[in-house]
Amino acid sequence: xxxxxxxxxxxxxxxxxxxxxxxxxxxxxxxxxxxxxxxxxxxxxxxxxxxxxxxxxxxxxxxxxxxxxxxxxxxxxxxxxxxxxxxxxxxxxxxxxxxxxxxxxxxxxxxxxxxxxxxx
Amino acid sequence: xxxxxxxxxxxxxxxxxxxxxxxxxxxxxxxxxxxxxxxxxxxxxxxxxxxxxxxxxxxxxxxxxxxxxxxxxxxxxxxxxxxxxxxxxxxxxxxxxxxxxxxxxxxxxxxxxxxxxxxxxxxxxxxxxxxxxxxxxxxxxxxxxxxxxxxxxxxxxxxxxxxxxxxxxxxxxxxxxxxxxxxxxxxxxxxxxxxxxxxxxxxxxxxxxxxxxxxxxxxxxxxxxxxxxxxxxxxxxxxxxxxxxxxxxxxxxxxxxxxxxxxxxxxxxxxxxxxxxxxxxxxxxxxxxxxxxxxxxxxxxxxxxxxxxxxxxxxxxxxxxxxxxxxxxxxxxxxxxxxxxxxxxxxxxxxxxxxxxxxxxxxxxxxxxxxxxxxxxxxxxxxxxxxxxxxxxxxxxxxxxxxxxxxxxxxxxxxxxxxx
Lengths: 120, 420
What we know:
The complex is a heterodimer of chains A (120) and B (420). Chain A has helices spanning 33-44, 77-84, and strands at residues 2-6, 15-21, 24-28, 47-48, 51-57, 63-68, 72-73, 88-90, 98-100, 110-112. Chain A is of the alpha+beta class and 120 residues long. In chain A, the strands form 3 sheets. Chain A has a 5-stranded mixed sheet with strand order 8-5-6-10-9, with no helix packed on it. A 3-stranded antiparallel sheet of chain A has the order 1-2-3, covered by helices on one side. Chain A has a two-stranded antiparallel sheet with strand order 4-7. In chain B, 46% of the residues are buried. Chain B is built from 8 helices and 28 strands. In chain B, a hairpin with a 3-residue loop joins strand 5 and strand 6 (104-115). In chain B, strands 1, 2, 3, 4, 5, 6 and 19 form a 7-stranded mixed sheet that branches. Chain B has a 5-stranded parallel sheet with strand order 8-15-9-10-11. Chain B has a 4-stranded mixed sheet with strand order 21-28-25-26, with no helix packed on it. Chain B has 3 domains: 1-121 and 257-330, FAD/NAD(P)-binding domain (3-Layer(bba) Sandwich); 123-255, FAD/NAD(P)-binding domain (3-Layer(bba) Sandwich); 331-420. Chain B is α/β, with parallel strands linked by helices and 420 residues long.
């Protein structure tokens, strides 16, 4: 089966096709090597950095923004979100603090993407 | 009234203001930073998505993290930071009148001022939406703030008008928070945002994008109940018979940004109709010597990295001005441009000074492939840069060394192979 991906490595936005053949993956339409790698990753195991917020208690804000420390498999996003949303942290929180370790066994940690001070 | 004398005052504590304040302090002058919110960071604090800082720090970070790096630096610095402080007026004599929750009225006499008030979103009133004015119609930035900082969900079923990056980012964000996003509607025939965001924010979540479409009517008296969308013809007029009713309780407007220049205009700063920001020279100095502008108040940037850079340029200019290195009544050479160029900033350069490096920011008028960005002085080519691809949403920049008396011209010759 042939699938088409829009490359986002650079603004050229090449339309790259990936076809699985007996002798391996056939990639076409890429303008450069980085595009080939991107399309193959998108085809086999697409990954995304996940950003969202968690509840923070006793802080100057009600939500703490968080970010995964590396990209997660796209297929695991829903499951990971569910686990992240169970988290509640206490202010003060510091930028870079680990909010959740090894989310859903992916080996990826979820970090605070800013500091939040205690309520005055 | 509290009275203060300061070398450089920066109005606005977002990315431009923070970078400007830090750079001015690094150059050894006394700095005051004024911010109307209870904390620094500006709009970055609600931009929790990643993709910030690639140019400056070489890594993709969340907007909030990008802000935090600067806030941490400012906490170590000696400058005076005024939070919860609203600037009410600035004068040509570089006096600032502000009102603060802590200090009451403040009068600052400044050697130089850097305007860094940022921009604000266009609202429903500015796009002439027909129908009632129910709850549930709000700008993408308001939705972003409710969800990311205040912890409220402003609706359950959303329609987004406008496909700029903010609209696309909010499409993904709303899905992650359980809001059903019915579609993104765009008046223009091409998307307003970057391809990267089309792929990662819409295609990843199977959110449809309707080009050449708009919202023509709002339904619901007290709370939004739905909208009517219509297809547009080549002249952007709705085509009768294409009406489609969509049930939704949230209409998200991502319909453009306007530099927030009330203070600048009031002070008598000359404006540029194209950028909707002050007319600037190579140091980002406005038409009033000693008053500078940086970031989105001067023109709407798409990358925060450039915003920070413009803050630093303005700060260096302000310090030069304090040292008496800038003529108090300068003569200007206009920066010429031609071909596929929408605008160039700075718009002019001071005449008769020694050789200097000037950073130009520009946007193209329409998409192009295999184009060239050329900066010339008469027949001589000063800089030539290949552009494999160029599109209006992506700002271009080039650095040029300019000798005294030179009048540069920036051009992107039409290639005739603009695509799609």
